[in-house]
Structures are given as C-alpha cells and as structure tokens.
Amino acid sequence: MPDGQPNDDNELVSLFKSNQDREKVFTLIVKKYQEKLYWQIRRIVITHEDADDVLQNVFIKAWNALQNFREDARLYTWLYRIAVNESLSHLEQQKRKSSISFDLVSETMENRLVAERGFDEQKAIWKLQLAIQQLPEKQRIVFNLRYFDAMTYEDMSQILETSVGALKASYHHAVKKIEEYIINH
Amino acid sequence: MPKSNYILDELIDISQTVAELTEETPFNTPQASYFENLPKQILQKIQEYEEDPSLDFLGNLNKEVPFTVPEGYFNHFKTTIPNKIIKSGKVIPIRRILRYAIAATIAGLLTVWGFLSDNINVTDSYSLMNVEASITGISTDAYDSYLNEDAVSEISDLPNEESDLQSTLLVEINKDVIEEILQEIPEKDISLYLHQDGYDDTEIMD
After folding, report:
1. Which of A173, B77, B158, B174 is most buried by its number of CB atoms within 10 A?
2. Does A1-99 carry CATH code 1.10.1740.10?
C-alpha cells in the first residue's frame, strides 16, 4: 500500500477489491464514515447501546458486500443506505420482541430520550429531539439527513429510493410539524 | 458546525422558528475514546466471524415468541371448528344469490322497456308491420260490409258539431231540455256567470 493514505472513495474501493491489505483499507473506510453514520443511527435509535450494535452491523455488512460493490454507485450513499435500513430493522425487531403496538413506538422513543443523561425538556436542543420523535418514520429520517448532515436531495433520493420531489415535500412537512411542536411546548 | 447556507436559506423559507434552532445533537458517547477503538473492534468481530462462520452476529437474536397458548388449545381446535360449521345456518352460495340478482335486474329492465314501449306512438315500423299483417287476411267483401253497416256518410273536412255533440252525450238534448235546466238555476247565478265571462245580458240566447 502506498505511503500516502488514500481518501478518495473510488480509490479505497479499488484497493479493497484488489485484496491488498484489506484490513488496513477497511479501517480507513471505517474511520472516514464512523462518526457520520453513528450520529445518524443514534438519532434514529436514540440509545448508545443500540447505535453501537447497529453501527457494527453496518460495517460487517459492508465488509461482506464491498467485494461486489458496483463502482458506478457511491460508497457514501451506499453506506448510508445500509445504516438507515439497519436502524429501521433494529427498531422493528425491538418492537416485535417487546410486542408493543405501533402507536406506542413514538411514546417509547420519547421515553428513551427522557432517560438520556443530561435530558432537559426546557432546553431547545432536547425539545428539538422530542419534536423529531413525533414525526412519522420516513419524515424523521429525511429531516435528520437534511438538517443535521446537510445532505442533498439527490443523495437522499439514492439512499431512500424516493423521488426528489417527494423528499422535498416530506422535508417541508417535517419542518412545519417541528415548528408546531416547538411553538406549542 | 453552523448550517450550510443553502440549508439555512431553505429553512428560513419554511420556518423561521426552526431555522433559529441549533443543529447540535444532545447525545454523547459514554467514552471519549469510543471512535478511536471502534475500527479495531469491528475488525476483530469480522475476524472471529471469518474463523468461525457459525457465529452469526446479525442473526444472533432471540427469536423466541413471547406469547403463550392455553394447554390443549390446538387439540381442541381441530374438533370444534368442523362442528361449528355443521351447526351453523344454511349457507347459500354467493353464486346463487348473484344469479337471482341478475335475473331480477333483467326482469326489471324488460318491464320498464315494455312500459315505455306501450306509451310510444304506434307509428314505428314494427307496429305498422303488425297492423299490416293483421289486415292482409281480411277480404274485400268484409271491408264493404263493414263500411255499409256503419252507414258513414261523406267525410267532410270540418266536423259536424251537432252530430258530434249528440253522439257523445248520454241524454238527448233539445231546446226544451235546455230551458228546463236553466229554470232550475237561479237567475242571479246565471247573471254572475255571464258577467265573469264578459257577456252582456242581452246576449243571452233566447
């Protein structure tokens, strides 16, 4: 492997596929995306323990699938898509495990927020998180990707396999609902 | 990290309130070194999995169903359902009901059509065909005798009012009968009637 650390996604994928120091290359990929993916996952599943589980699963899946990764796709959106799907699957499994109804899911996530260290509902930073938990699942993800990660609608469209127009509408609705929550609480 | 300009501009357009909120997340990692150690942890797990494929990290979930079923429920289930089907009321197949409904609809449509047909002026070709068919079998002698029996005189263009009137009345009317009827009606009423229609007394018929 060359002395200079490769950072370009295409380069990283090519090196991984060439089976040269795969572990070193993969470590670089993990270091490049771990924080972004972790916080995105954390905003969906709330607790650190769940986020840790999901994040590790995401990278294990990426390791298994990277050899067949199509280089016309983007590593960035591909990893995000795995992260979103794994997060939602994780929540689904927890729902089934605890036999909670769909209506109670939002309440459960709220309870998790309240249980977080340092929670203070008077602070805007926590109020925003509570407001986000009121949103339907898809809107929540769209809002998080746009608001916190400044993701473009085109990238979001590849991750969520939804049209740009629908995403814009979804984001608009999400912001309005959050505004309503902030004003009323 | 401050919001990028295009995100901020978009938010301001939608909601000033939300645009003014922080983009920070209130969550923390339990250890400051979490991200430093994470790549090593992940690779360790991958190595363990590759050395022992039976370790299914992703499928290592408790698949046990938390629900319970009363004892003997499924044994009881097999016998009760067939009995319940036998005891239930007569089952009319839906196809039969549908057939009845279709038949009733067709009958209704035919009735309406028949009703409408009766009220149609009998000048259509079908009716004419029927008339034509019915009179083709009548001989000319029969026509002649029919016409002579009724003794209908020449038909004039203008109808004969008196004869028409006579033919429709139940009682034979003449001048004496009219006078008799008028005597029974008070003069005052006759006068009122005539004035309503704009007639003068002098125009009363003698």
Report:
1. A173
2. yes
